[in-house]
Amino acid sequence: xxxxxxxxxxxxxxxxxxxxxxxxxxxxxxxxxxxxxxxxxxxxxxxxxxxxxxxxxxxxxxxxxxxxxxxxxxxxxxxxxxxxxxxxxxxxxxxxxxxxxxxxxxxxxxxxxxxxxxxxxxxxxxxxxxxxxxxxxxxxxxxxxxxxxxxxxxxxxxxxxxxxxxxxxxxxxxxxxxxxxxxxxxxxxxxxxxxxxxxxxxxxxxxxxxxxxxxxxxxxxxxxxxxxxxxxxxxxxxxxxxxxxxxxxxxxxxxxxxxxxxxxxxxxxxxxxxxxxxxxxxxxxxxxxxxxxxxxxxxxxxxxxxxxxxxxxxxxxxx
Length: 319
Hints:
The chain contains eleven helices and ten strands. By secondary structure, it is an alpha/beta fold. Strands 1, 2, 3, 4, 5, 6, 7, 8, 9 and 10 form a ten-stranded mixed sheet that branches.
């Protein structure tokens, strides 16, 4: 019996090694759940460039953008590719949020989380001539009068929306009475044009105007003090607000992806994160390293879904 068991284990190891050696056997279709030129598209193309520059795979990657229905079109497409190890899927926290708000029945339980690749951090931005000198000034103001400050975000619900509501909640403001407007397009135009007093957006979206002296950063959603463009910008925890928001980009596979393929990507992506090619991509796009392998990524997705679901129910967005 022991001999049979050892033979089975040996066969599994040999089979896994064979799959890792043979895979990928053809081109890989990478499906960003967003349009060309967006953040998910950038992450997909950075992955493609860096992983080939580092010579970690030899088969080409073909980018197939699917930005329809706030990511749900890509979900439906990839879900139909059950068991196909040559399809990968780039998505954000919409992987679970969309099910909570009722636009789809699919979330990450219907896919295979492979890795969190990168994150951006969100920031509060004001005009340089704003009378509010700090995020604490604004929090105190909306605690006294929730409608006294006009905030701009890209969409609701979204991470930039949560980056307004969650600090307000923790500071004791009546978050249901906050003035928050969602704008399609460039939020900086709304800020610099005086249509809103504060915007919540990704740091990379704001930096051009900050460096030009037109805007100031008041707070970041990073979990700890940052360097680079965010050096000296207070983070929420440093301001006594116990929260962080990672505006991440993650890699998923269709349901039924073999364990050997998951192990392959754990190995290759773990190696990729240490390469100069990937570090160059992080610097180019202003991203932060937030790598999590398949096991850690799924664990953190489950925790995020619980926190976000509770918040969306409180705010009336959940279906």
